[in-house]
Amino acid sequence: MNRKRKACAKPGCPEIHTEDGMYCKLHKRAHRREYATTYAHLYDRQWRNESKKYLRGHPWCECQECREGPYRRKANCVDHIKAHRGDVNLFWDRGNWMAMNVFVIKTKYFTSFFNMQ
Ligand SMILES: [Zn+2]
Ligand SMILES: [Zn+2]
């Protein structure tokens, strides 16, 4: 697959990147950190309990690569398919949940994932 080259969405950043999402590698990381801090209050004990329950019913990583590839990684966290941006309904909508492997999230995706550890 040929990835599209695009300019980083961070104002003033000259980087042309091929990442998923709007930001270059560096700013993607910064943005995710910001996201995690902003919505940290949503990822409380209830989230941890509910996401653990969810993983019991969804033991395998549901990312495209794992679904289509020869190797399936074990899921060990729940991510949101559509970024919830603080929307509580979207946050708790099981239809918007996706079992994923933490490694896949960290290396491949910019998502709403918040590190639970
Ligand atoms: Zn950038
Ligand atoms: Zn996967």
Q: How would you summarize the topology of this molecule?
A:
Elements: E1 6-7, E2 16-17, H1 25-38, H2 45-57, H3 64-68, E3 77-80, H4 88-92, E4 97-100, H5 102-108
One zinc ion binds next to helix 1.
Could you characterize what this model shows?
The chain has helices spanning about 25-40, 45-55, 65-70, 90, 100-110, and strands spanning about 5, 15, 75-80, 95-100. It has two domains: about 1-40, no CATH class; about 45-115, no CATH class. Helices cover about 40% and strands about 10% of the residues. A hairpin with an 8-residue loop joins strand 1 (about 5) and strand 2. It has a two-stranded antiparallel ribbon. It has about 120 residues and is of the alpha+beta class. It is built from five helices and four strands; from the N terminus they run ββαααβαβα. The N and C termini lie far apart (about 35 Å). The structure holds zinc ion (2 copies). One zinc ion (ZN) binds near residues 61, 63, 66 and 101.
Bound molecules: zinc ion
- Could you give a short account of the major beta sheet? 2 strands, antiparallel
Poorly predicted spans: none
- One letter per element, helices H and strands E, the order comes to EEHHHEHEH
Mean pLDDT: 84
Counting H and I runs of at least 4 residues, what is the number of helices?
A: 5
End-to-end distance = 34 Å
Strand content: 5-15%
Q: What general form does the structure show? A: globular
State the helical fraction.
25-40%
Judged by helices, strands and strand pairing, the structural class is alpha+beta
Number of discrete domains = 2
